[in-house]
Amino acid sequence: MAWFTKKTKQEEAPQSSPDLWMKCPKCEKLVLRTEWNGGHNVCPKCGYHDKITSAQRIAITIDAGTFKEMFANISPADPLKFVDAKES
After folding, report:
1. Average pLDDT, the chain
2. Which residues pair with 32 in a beta bridge?
3. Contact in structure between 50 and 41 (CB atoms under 8 Å)
4. How far apart are alpha carbons 29 and 36 in whole angstroms?
5. What pLDDT, on the 0 to 100 scale, is given for residue 43?
6. Can you tell me the distance from the alpha carbon of 20 to that of 10, in angstroms, rounded to the nearest whole number?
């Protein structure tokens, strides 16, 4: 057993937050999360378009402060009582 060990550059580097980077689902290259979110979930390296939420879509499309949600109390109905063969 050695009396001392030499630290490598990787061990000396400061640990970054796991949320700082993400891997593109298509090209699998690392992308800064700020670049990913700033580009509306589009990979700057390969141009892959990932899904965005409805709130993100509204923020991109509508002027800030002008959106008013209407009929928020309406929910989907199933008048035919549809049953799928595949369980969800």
Report:
1. 84
2. 21
3. yes
4. 12
5. 93
6. 17
3-state secondary structure of 15: coil
Mean pLDDT over 31-52 rounds to 92
Q: Measured between alpha carbons, how far is 32 from 44 in angstroms, rounded to an integer?
A: 10
Tell me the whole-structure pTM to 2 decimals: 0.57
> Which residue has tokens 């589009």?
42
- The residue among 16, 13, 15 whose CA lies nearest residue 32 is 16
| pLDDT level of residue 13 (50, 70, 90 thresholds) | very low
The tokens describing 28, both together, are 């699998």
Helix (H, G, I), strand (E, B) or coil at 34: helix
53's tokens: 């939420």
Cα–Cα distance between 28 and 73 in angstroms, integer? 41
Dist. CA 82–CA 10, nearest whole Å? 56
